[in-house]
């Protein structure tokens, strides 16, 4: 989490890191605990494609991600969720704690997140949540596409 904090401070991105006693395992659990709309939750998923790994930052309100849609956006044959051991190896973080920013992966952003003034997602530490403005995701990630 220190790396994430340093990046946010270096880029002068307004943010809050919210501590909580337990790991928030689902978007709904996070929304309930933080008292926010489900759509403000922003899990970071790591996807395996024909061309390597990609981060997908998606609104919790979306529900299931249509992997065929992601494959079409990326122009690849196959997309699947990366196995947990691959997520740890590629990012250095466990599934469920992958940070919103600071990954060295190409990134797809869900446009639904831009409806909100603040979104909430991973910090790399399961006992904390990052709160920031969604436009910061564009500034801090290597965005290659958007999910409509």
Automatic annotation (TrEMBL):
<dbReference type="GO" id="GO:0002161">
    <property type="term" value="F:aminoacyl-tRNA deacylase activity"/>
</dbReference>
<dbReference type="InterPro" id="IPR036754">
    <property type="entry name" value="YbaK/aa-tRNA-synt-asso_dom_sf"/>
</dbReference>
<feature type="domain" description="YbaK/aminoacyl-tRNA synthetase-associated">
    <location>
        <begin position="23"/>
        <end position="139"/>
    </location>
</feature>
<dbReference type="Pfam" id="PF04073">
    <property type="entry name" value="tRNA_edit"/>
</dbReference>
<protein>
    <recommendedName>
        <fullName>YbaK/aminoacyl-tRNA synthetase-associated domain-containing protein</fullName>
    </recommendedName>
</protein>
<dbReference type="InterPro" id="IPR007214">
    <property type="entry name" value="YbaK/aa-tRNA-synth-assoc-dom"/>
</dbReference>
């Amino acid at each position: 989490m220190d790396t994430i904090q340093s990046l946010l401070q270096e880029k002068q991105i307004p943010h809050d890191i919210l501590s909580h006693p337990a790991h928030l395992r689902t978007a709904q659990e996070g929304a309930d605990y933080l008292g926010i709309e489900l759509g403000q939750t922003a899990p970071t998923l790591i996807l395996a494609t024909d061309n390597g790994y990609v981060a997908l930052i998606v609104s919790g309100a979306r529900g299931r991600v249509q992997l065929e849609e992601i494959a079409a956006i990326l122009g690849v044959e196959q997309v699947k969720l990366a196995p947990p051991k691959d997520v740890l190896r590629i990012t250095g973080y466990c599934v469920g704690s992958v940070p919103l920013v600071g990954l060295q992966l190409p990134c797809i952003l869900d446009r639904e997140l831009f409806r909100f003034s603040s979104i909430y997602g991973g910090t790399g530490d399961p006992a904390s949540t990052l709160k920031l403005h969604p436009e910061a995701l564009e500034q801090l990630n290597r965005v290659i596409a958007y999910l409509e």
